[in-house]
Specification:
By secondary structure, the protein is α/β, with parallel strands linked by helices. Among the domains are: about 115-195, no CATH class; about 210-320, no CATH class. It has ten helices and nine strands. The chain has a four-stranded mixed beta sheet. Strands 7-8-9 form a three-stranded antiparallel beta sheet. The radius of gyration is 21 Å and the shape is globular.
Length: about 325
């Protein structure tokens, strides 16, 4: 094991799961585990959370996303070098690099794991450059560092494809608490786009971590939500006093129609119109870009008109003022 990896490991606060016993030696690479397999099957660990909402199905304190055996509380996967990264996702085991992995990639993975974020390949592989961008975004005080140690974010994984919707570059899985970055979005690698997608998905985890602040944001933004027995109605108050309503599925099924019904010059992007959750994530992303003193205009964000808006002011005071 090289000196940098030893130093990182010695400074890492290992989570309580390190001492768990592992039953059996026949550890096999887990196939992608689909939470929908357990929808409607009750509450496996009897913790009060139904299976489809439970980020730790078996109650062994190991998040599903990195648990090789997510429905077996007796085991979670081998960890030969005790670095708190299960071997099945670890880039280096006992100093032995897996195929295609560089020493720098292993160092970054360990560094982020010490911050509570597991980064690993799912059905596509991260490059060293991509991992450098992610680490820089997480470590920089002007970027994501104020939002570390969220209980609502356990991992960042890379997956082949473009997401459930055409052109989607990332997803936040709100029940299992992890971010997916899609392979098709980064060929060739566009550092700013990768960083911005990471910002956006991270903001979804922030909204889940701080529900009261999210509710306050909705009031400032002009959203009202009316849950019903069979469906939920979302109402938005335009600056001209017009109230417009949307069904729950409109934001994904009819995005262009939704965008034509919401009018506000203060929003940082057109995508911010696609429902309250997307508005929060886009406002959070644009607020971080303003901290970085990004150019007033770029491919997606209208930072000049967003600067000083009520939404930017709210986010700055709620999350970015020490």
């Amino acid at each position: 094991m090289n000196q940098k990896r030893i130093a990182a490991l010695s400074g890492c606060l290992l989570m309580s799961v390190v001492g768990l016993s592992v039953f059996g030696d026949d550890v096999k690479l887990r196939q992608r585990f689909d939470p929908s397999d357990h929808i409607g099957r009750g509450d496996y660990d009897e913790d009060g959370l139904p299976n489809q909402l439970d980020p730790d199905l078996d109650g062994d304190f190991v998040p599903n996303v990195v648990d090789q055996y997510p429905i077996d509380r007796r085991r979670w996967g081998e960890d030969e070098d005790y670095d708190n990264i299960p071997d099945w996702v670890d880039y280096a085991i006992g100093g032995r690099l897996k195929a295609g992995i560089t020493e720098r990639m292993a160092e970054i993975q360990l560094d982020l794991a010490c911050l509570g974020i597991f980064v690993f390949d799912e059905t596509a592989s991260f490059s060293e450059d991509e991992l450098e961008i992610i680490e820089r975004a997480v470590r920089d005080p002007l970027q994501l560092k104020p939002f570390l140690y969220l209980s609502t974010l356990h991992a960042i994984v890379k997956r082949a494809g473009r997401g459930s919707l055409k052109g989607r570059f990332g997803d936040y899985h709100q029940y299992w608490n992890y971010i997916v970055l899609y392979e098709g979005a980064w060929e060739p690698i566009h550092p700013e786009r990768l960083r911005n997608v990471l910002f956006h998905e991270w903001m979804h985890a922030v909204a889940k971590q701080y529900p009261r602040k999210y509710e306050e944001f909705l009031k400032v933004a002009g959203w009202s939500i009316y849950p019903g027995e069979y469906y939920t109605i979302f109402e938005y108050l335009n600056p001209n006093g017009e109230r417009v309503q949307f069904a729950e599925g409109d934001f994904e099924l009819h995005p262009d129609r939704v965008k034509t019904r919401i009018f506000s010059e203060d929003l940082p992007s057109e995508e911010a119109k696609l429902g309250p959750q997307e508005m929060f994530a886009e406002v959070g992303t644009a607020s971080l870009l303003l901290r970085l003193d990004e150019a007033p205009q770029n491919d997606r964000y209208h930072l000049a008109s967003f600067r000083g808006s009520p939404l930017q002011d709210f986010f700055q005071k709620a999350f970015l003022t020490e």
